[in-house]
Amino acid sequence: MASPADRKQEQRAASRADDPAGGPLTTDQGVEVDHTDDSLAVGERGPTLMEDFHFREKLTRFDHERIPERVVHARGAGAYGWFEPYESCAEFTRAAFLQDPSVRTPVFVRFSTVQGPKGSADTVRDVRGFATKFYTSEGNYDLVGNNFPVFFIQDGIKFPDFVHAVKPEPHNDIPTGASAHDTLWDFVSLQPETLHAIMWLMSDRAIPRSYRMMQGFGVHTFRFVNAEGRGTFVKFHWKPKLGVHSLVWDEAQECQGRDPDFNRRDLWDAIAAGEYPEWELGVQLVPEEDEFAFDFDLLDPTKIIPEEQVPVRPIGRMVLDRNPENFFAETEQVAFHTANVVPGIDFTNDPLLQARNFSYLDTQLIRLGGPNFSQLPVNRPVAPVRNNQRDGYHQSAIHSGTNYFPNSLGGGCPAHAGAGGSAYTHHAERVDGHKIRRRSPSFQDHYSQTAMFWNSMADWEKQHIVEAFRFELGKVGARTVRARTVEHLAEVDGELAARVAQGIGVPEPSGAGAPYKQASPALSLESLRGDGSIRTRQIAVLVTDGVDAEQITSVRERLAAEGAIVEALAATDGTIAGADGETYAVDRALPTVASVLYDAVLLPGGPVGTPPTAADPDAVRFVRDAYRHGKPVGALGSGVGILSALEPEGLRLSTEFHRVVSDQGVVTDTSPGPASEEFLNTFVDAIAGHRHWGRGPVRH
Ligand code: HDE
């Protein structure tokens, strides 16, 4: 029998629309068409005829190609893959896909930004969606998470307000893919429950280097239920094997123009190249009897459980190994729903989660035009579907027999699943109370975990947060809103508030709030370096005629062996002539790329005293940008000379010759000839370090 991972692909294959025989063009009715370039008209210059059914069908179909984009998370990219547990989780949950390490469950994952429309740029400052559909043997399970572990509001009834505030302003539809505007910050300044998530939004987590290099979180506290009916609270974490890495803000902004598809292209290219991204699924487990053991409420989605308090226990891994074949059919039409759960996974009374359990089905009905969207190939479970749900728009199944329960005429089918078997049973939580509209007092502390996040950051992360607040609030026209926000920040941390205030022209708040001391080191990017490899890192080598080809080859071979992608860039595409007189292929022309599209740059030398690329302004700009953005810069032989262009940026070039010198990710060796082992090791380490923050006046 095919493994479930294959079963999804087999099912998908059955929906492929290609004609393997490759027959001629037809209408939707299968009538062959001999000419699709001119409409049927009276004479060569006469009016078009109504009778041209092919013309009318073609235009009508085109007119109807669009569906409404998602009201949030409109822009996304997806991929198929599989999940396997490390060992049985039967002690905590009866979910079948978490029992057997030899069973792989197929998945589809969609990553997204939240604020911008479908056509907006990838590298905006925003939360990223991280939604996973597990096609389990017991039905579909959707873990619809984000790359932040906390949300902006506590109760789903506020969601329309929050989304209206962050979306482009209603009068002019500005800004696209950005939160730096008055209405969002007006909302934030009046709604301190947003602050914890806002800290994440101002941090580098909001500008990931790659979807493959970000964490995912279920956010809410969910509930595992085992075969005996025992519940355990659970928080879900995805941890990327490649580590968590971000862009710098200046770079992210430039990238929006240089390659608006930066993140989706990265995902696509990696999978196409067989570099399958991988995440570990971890859980934080809290026994039900410990529900009140914390100084925050487990039901409050603006809080995390610090990992130092409840460690994240790894339970399995997910690998994405297949790009979709059709963006619209699959990535656009995939429909996630928090209420798609399987036996062994249940909800809690988190009011945000409860609202989501209503909203996702509701939104699919309008977005996908009716109730039959679960028949679309990407949404179809691999588990059998039998019920009396019928008809409606876009019904594509041909049902037969009875359509009600109970029945005798249909042999009683489909019958109830037997109690105690594999059917879903809701956790029998006892609930008792008055009907009220009131936020729980246990949800009232908005500052201590916000401060914990700030306290946990490395100095460079704090600096980036301050600069992000200054950027965002600096774009807010209403000074009252700026000042009110800073007053809330003073409740979090006096120093944070003062540093932000200094940059946006509002008075520094006088009274600071409670001095919160708690920190969670697991929150800093410094603790999330992953496997430390440089796999799939993009390394630019700037080349020109006369360059030392041996140097390039020595670096290229080593970096390629480490899994990095090395590209030779020259002023024009085609070939260059190396110092040895041989011709070498250029991968891309410098004017078609930019430093922001690469992780590191190498400057090889030539036999003559001057650095070969120093005369090319594009090359100089490339290196300067890489340096400003904290990226590793390697230079060999006379290639080191180009670095003198960085002295105004604060670079102090070493006066030592013919040895490897490494300072803040700038690795040089003026020796001619192939790169030494020491140089290569040091350069690889610098690339693995991602960014180097101790440089002079770096552009964040
Ligand atoms: Fe969503 N959210 N959300 N959300 N959300 C949607 O569903 C909603 C929330 C998340 O790639 C919508 O199909 C409400 C938290 C992701 O297709 C919609 C509330 C988290 C995606 C919706 C939240 C998320 C969505 C829009 C507050 C992280 C993209 C289109 C009660 C845990 C899924 C759609 C994809 C999409 C509603 C809050 C994550 C309207 C009402 C918290 C990753 O149904």
Strand-helix topology:
Layout: H1 4-13, H2 53-63, E1 76-85, E2 105-113, E3 128-136, E4 139-146, H3 159-166, H4 182-190, H5 195-202, E5 216-217, E6 222-225, E7 231-240, H6 249-258, H7 262-272, E8 278-287, E9 313-322, H8 327-332, E10 345-346, H9 351-367, H10 448-456, H11 459-474, H12 479-492, H13 494-504, E11 538-542, H14 549-561, E12 565-570, E13 575-577, E14 583-585, E15 588-589, E16 600-603, H15 617-628, E17 633-636, E18 661-663, E19 666-669, H16 677-688
Parallel strand pairs: 11-12, 11-16, 12-15, 16-17, 17-19
Antiparallel strand pairs: 1-2, 1-9, 2-3, 3-4, 5-7, 6-7, 6-10, 7-8, 8-9, 13-14, 18-19
CIS-heme D hydroxychlorin gamma-spirolactone 17R, 18S is lined by residues 70-73, 76, 110, 112, 129, 131, 144-146, 151, 156, 159, 219, 301, 334, 336, 352, 355-356, 359-360, 363-364.
Keywords: Heme, Hydrogen peroxide, Iron, Metal-binding, Oxidoreductase, Peroxidase
EC number: 1.11.1.6
Cross-link (3'-histidyl-3-tyrosine (His-Tyr)): 337-360
